[in-house]
Automatic annotation (TrEMBL):
Superkingdom to which the source organism belongs: Bacteria
PANTHER family per record: ABC TRANSPORTER PERMEASE (PTHR43471), ABC TRANSPORTER PERMEASE PROTEIN NATB (PTHR43471:SF3)
GO terms for MF: ABC-type transporter activity
Protein source organism: Thalassotalea agarivorans (Thalassomonas agarivorans)
Primary localisation category: membrane
Domain ABC-2 type transporter transmembrane stretches: 26-332
GO cellular component terms listed in the entry, alphabetical order: membrane
Presence of the UniProt keyword Transmembrane helix in the record: yes
Protein name in UniProt: Sodium transport system permease protein
A Pfam short name: ABC2_membrane_3
Keyword Chloroplast found: no
Location of the protein in the cell: Membrane
Keywords: Membrane, Transmembrane, Transmembrane helix
Length: 387
């Protein structure tokens, strides 16, 4: 135990001595709340407000009522665009073509073909195009209902089934975009915060011949690995806790009630998150140490280990495309923790069996990595980077 304490003290002293590297390691924890705050404000503004849309309408004089209905929804003619937004909307180039026979076809009850042209792959146009289509479809539907009423036909005949929907989601579920971002940022904080410490204490020490000197001492390789793992994991835990605390503060400045949502991090939520993320911090640091020890140089270790940090972003993104998720994903590291975080943020009761097994599986894989590293450090090939 004395050996481990001495080695851990040495690792902690070196990790906290380089303030610049430590600040860079915790940068994600500091930036994540700022990004969540900015994205949330933009999403709420998009959902609540109806900013002006300017479109180039050909044949506007043939359908004045339609133009008036669009104006009520802040969909305006390009000729009315302010000077400071003129270049922007000219580049977006949204065009609506109204045929010359609009009024005659309307009176005759014929179907009128109008053309809406734009770059549908442009993300910036996704919301404006949706608003334009909804407005035109609503205007068309109202005219259809009026025609039926004039002919003495009950408009309910057009809707034989009235589907009544009850949204049973709790208000916190409406803040899913914040929950998803926070879940991914927490996993990334667990992987990124201890990254520099893990590389420096393994490949860095080997390049500076410090590792060789330590191994010449009468110490167990298992204690060396555990000391390095404990130090890197501690930095990762600090990053996760900072992300949680700062995000909680940042979200308190966002008025989610405007979209009927709430988001709070109470004591129970924080306790479950810590129980979920503590094994991930250990697993992430063990994985980074393992690959850093396999690299032949510090530079190679940086390249190899940096690829691991995409896992916390890649796996949750892949899970959104899987409709019927296999059972083993609930127990696997990262995917299991992310699925449980989804339930937690939706205020769904946590499956304690799933929480236990995903933690155990993550810790077992960490132990396997630690034992493998301890065994490899007894070989000259690993210490001198000969293989």
């Amino acid at each position: 135990m004395m050996q481990f304490n001495a080695l851990l003290f040495k690792e902690l002293k070196e990790a906290f001595r380089d303030k610049r590297a430590l600040a860079a390691a915790l940068m994600l924890a500091l930036m994540a709340p700022v990004m969540i705050f900015a994205i949330s404000k933009m999403a709420i503004k998009e959902a609540v407000e109806k900013p002006d849309i300017f479109i180039n309408v050909t044949g506007a004089e043939y359908a004045p009522k339609l133009i008036e209905a669009m104006a009520k929804e802040n969909i305006l003619l390009l000729s009315d665009v302010p000077q400071d937004k003129q270049t922007l909307w000219q580049e977006r180039d949204v065009r609506l073509t109204i045929p010359e026979s609009f009024a005659e076809d309307m009176v005759a009850g014929k179907q009128i073909k109008m053309t809406l042209s734009a770059d549908y792959s442009d993300n910036a146009l996704r919301s404006p195009l949706r608003r334009i289509k909804n407005t035109i479809n609503g205007y068309s539907r109202n005219i259809g209902y009026r025609r039926m009423m004039v002919r003495g036909i009950d408009v309910k005949l057009m809707q034989p089934i009235n589907l009544i929907e009850f949204d049973e989601a709790v208000p916190s579920s409406n803040a899913m975009f914040i929950s998803m971002l926070l879940g991914i940022y927490l996993l990334m904080a667990a992987f990124m915060s201890g990254l520099s410490v893990a590389i420096d204490s393994s490949a860095g020490e080997r390049e500076r011949n410090v590792l060789e000197v330590i191994l010449c001492q009468p110490v167990k390789t298992l204690n060396i690995v555990l000391a390095k793992l404990s130090c890197a994991s501690l930095i990762a835990v600090i990053g996760v806790v900072l992300t949680l605390v700062l995000t909680s503060v940042a979200v308190s400045f966002i008025d989610l009630t405007t979209i009927g949502a709430t988001f709070t991090l109470d004591g129970y939520t924080i306790a479950v998150l810590v129980a979920l993320l503590l094994p991930i911090c250990l697993f992430a640091s063990a994985l980074q140490l393992f690959f850093a020890f396999q690299a032949k140089s510090f530079k190679e270790a940086q390249s190899t280990v940096s690829m691991i940090i995409i896992l916390p972003a890649l796996i949750p993104a892949a899970l959104t495309f899987i409709q019927d998720k296999p059972k083993w994903l609930e127990w696997a590291p990262i995917s299991g923790q992310y699925l449980l975080m989804e339930d937690l943020f939706k205020a769904v009761p946590i499956n304690m069996e799933m929480l236990f097994f995903t933690g155990v599986v993550t810790l077992v894989m960490t132990v396997v990595l630690v034992q493998t590293m301890a065994k490899k450090l007894t070989s000259e090939k690993t210490v001198l980077a000969l293989s």
